[in-house]
């Protein structure tokens, strides 16, 4: 698989406020300004609606120019964003496509996809899916991580013919599974609420995500790999340390708000969790209470960065990516207060 295949990106339910609107600034980077591009996100919505972002700008003198878009790669490539978010394991593809050197400055949430089967299926692991139809939302993104893990655990090749890959819309996968049109899926739990609540589908591996299994087999105690990290242009981060530090402070506040007001945030912004009915809202609140994929702190140290980078060691060892794919750069930082 070439490095180019790392480029395809499917955004999850994380990102920037849908209410911010407008294109990112096309002006060049400036001191005291952070051009931040993110996909729609409940924590960012909450911080805006509660005046936290406004207070941040007043107290720091730093302005955040934001845009809500699913095309973060495109804006980054055009030089219209200083910081975006993507999965940590997609950063090499980001650099190749945009021809811009980057650095990971913060973490946000773990890769949360699960392999699911129908409730009555006797399968106990991916090894039982040989020759069956596996629904995926892309052949890259989280599928890369699962490909490496399944190769490691079962000597099985997800992308090499051991299963019949069926690419479908991410929001339809669990429904296709429940109806029997596919035999299994790599699905996000928050996009499978109705089927999980009704009990028509179930996750393999005792409900563990790819991040859970990666930690179990490769980096005990680690919380990654990350489905979303904050990625900055390397040249911008090097010349704007105050803005980088302030941005991380703001997101640490956001993560603290999530921990303190998680149920309220889910209730206020159910669209970000693909739920509408009271029953589904209650289910996702309970589910996230047990399987929260949002991290506690945006900053990280060198050990965390080394553990996160080890996903590339695994993907190279299992030939999911080529030996020439370099690890991303990380910028470990400490709290300023």
Automatic annotation (TrEMBL):
SUPFAM superfamilies for the chain: Periplasmic binding protein-like II (SSF53850)
| A Pfam family | NMT1
Name-wise, this protein is: ABC transporter substrate-binding protein
- Origin species, per record, is Mycolicibacterium komossense
SsuA/THI5-like domain mapped to chain residues: 107-264
Which InterPro entries does this one have?
Answer: SsuA/THI5
Origin superkingdom? Bacteria
Query: Which intervals of the chain form a coiled coil?
Result: none
């Amino acid at each position: 698989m070439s490095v180019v295949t790392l480029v395809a990106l499917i955004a999850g339910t994380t990102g920037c406020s849908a209410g911010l609107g407008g294109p990112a600034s096309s002006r060049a980077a400036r001191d005291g300004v952070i051009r931040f591009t993110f996909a729609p996100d409940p924590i960012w919505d909450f911080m805006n609606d509660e005046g936290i972002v406004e207070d941040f700008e007043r107290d720091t003198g730093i302005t955040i120019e934001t845009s809500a878009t699913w095309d973060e790669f495109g804006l980054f490539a055009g030089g219209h964003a200083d910081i975006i978010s993507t999965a940590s394991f997609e950063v090499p593809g980001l650099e190749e496509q945009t021809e811009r050197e980057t650095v990971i400055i913060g973490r946000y949430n773990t890769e949360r996809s699960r392999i699911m089967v129908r409730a009555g299926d006797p399968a106990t692991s991916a090894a039982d899916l040989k020759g069956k139809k596996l629904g995926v939302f892309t052949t890259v993104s989280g599928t890369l991580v699962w490909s490496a893990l399944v190769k490691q655990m079962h000597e099985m090749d997800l992308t090499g013919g051991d299963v019949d890959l069926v690419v479908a819309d991410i929001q339809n996968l669990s429904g296709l599974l429940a109806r029997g049109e596919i035999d299994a899926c790599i699905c996000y739990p928050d996009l499978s609420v109705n089927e999980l609540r009704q009990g028509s589908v179930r996750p393999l591996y005792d409900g563990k995500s790819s991040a859970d299994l990666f930690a179990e087999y490769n980096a005990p105690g680690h919380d990654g790999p990350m489905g979303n990290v904050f990625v900055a242009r390397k040249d911008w981060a090097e010349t704007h340390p105050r803005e980088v530090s302030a941005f991380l402070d703001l997101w640490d506040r956001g993560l603290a708000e999530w921990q303190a007001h998680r149920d309220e945030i889910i209730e206020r912004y159910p669209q970000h969790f693909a739920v509408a009915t009271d029953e589904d809202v209650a289910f996702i609140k309970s589910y996230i209470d047990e399987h929260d994929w949002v991290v506690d702190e945006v900053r990280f140290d060198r050990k965390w960065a080394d553990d996160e980078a080890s996903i590339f060691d695994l993907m190279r060892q299992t030939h999911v990516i080529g030996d020439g794919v370099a690890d991303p750069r990380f910028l470990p930082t400490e709290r300023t207060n």
